[in-house]
Amino acid sequence: MSEICRFIHAEKANYAITLLCRVMKTARSTYYAWVAGTEAREARRQADEALAHEITVIHIASRRNYGVPRVTAELRRQGRVVNHKRVARVMREHGIAGHTRRTGRRSLTKADTKAAPSPDLIGRDFTATRPGTKVVGDITYIPTAEGWLYLASWLDLATREIIGYSMADHHRAELVVDALDMAAALGRLEPGCVIHSDRGSEYTSGQLRGRLRELGYRQSMGRTGSCFDNAAAESFWAVLKEEIGTRFWPSRTAARAAVFDFIETFYNRRRLRKHIH
């Protein structure tokens, strides 16, 4: 019936509604009731789109593992009153699905139990009004025939640009320090900038903390094992893996070239265009 009403609505500028309803064998009251519900349907559609965005952020932050039950639980934990059936419908309509079993992927977050964590200065507020004031960082790894290639990056929350990154065959503290030095050398960070990460040993290291003091930046950390406390960095990894693929690279050099090309010629250029225009 809705298809008939849509047809009548589209043709009402050319023919009288009475004629269209008679030809389509539809009561005028039915058509007018459909028109009255248009605004409500549009409001529901917009609400579903907003919910789909929230679900996508949670799903990406979970490394695409969360299904309906855990997505619903996280939405409720964040104060969103939502029915699990609606979450299931929106996820199904947008092709969002969680993993039903563990993939064997290991986490790089190994906390140093002897090091006191820094306070969380972000509080899951992954926004910034000015570039160079709040950045988030994380480490990921890419499989190659020569072994893992580790990648550390720092992402500006104002522009979503990767302002510093480093790659190596290890994930010791100097990996994240080198990425930070790249951002600092390019003049991308303001004094007092908040530098946020997880509580991995690379970030609680004296080497990074000493460098942060030298540069005049403030360190911030989320909780151990909580991907949502560093969701913006997790989201970037999801985009990178989706674009360059998760295949087994023949060498670290080949993987480096793919990562460099993605960041410099695709990701940062697209983000810069978005924030310039």
UniProtKB/TrEMBL annotation:
Pfam families for this protein: HTH_21, rve
Coiled-coil annotated residue ranges, if any: none
UniProt superkingdom: Bacteria
InterPro entries (alphabetical): HTH-like_dom, Integrase_cat-core, RNaseH-like_sf, RNaseH_sf, Transpos_IS3, Transposase_IS3/IS150/IS904
Domain Integrase catalytic: 127-277
Region (Disordered): 99-120
Positions of transmembrane segments: none
Signal peptide: none
Ranges annotated as biased composition (Basic residues): 99-108
SUPFAM superfamilies reported for this sequence: Ribonuclease H-like (SSF53098)
PANTHER family recorded: TRANSPOSASE INSF FOR INSERTION SEQUENCE IS3B-RELATED (PTHR46889), TRANSPOSASE INSO FOR INSERTION SEQUENCE ELEMENT IS911B-RELATED (PTHR46889:SF4)
Function: Involved in the transposition of the insertion sequence.
Protein name: IS3 family transposase
Species, as recorded: Streptomyces thioluteus
Lineage: Bacteria, Bacillati, Actinomycetota, Actinomycetes, Kitasatosporales
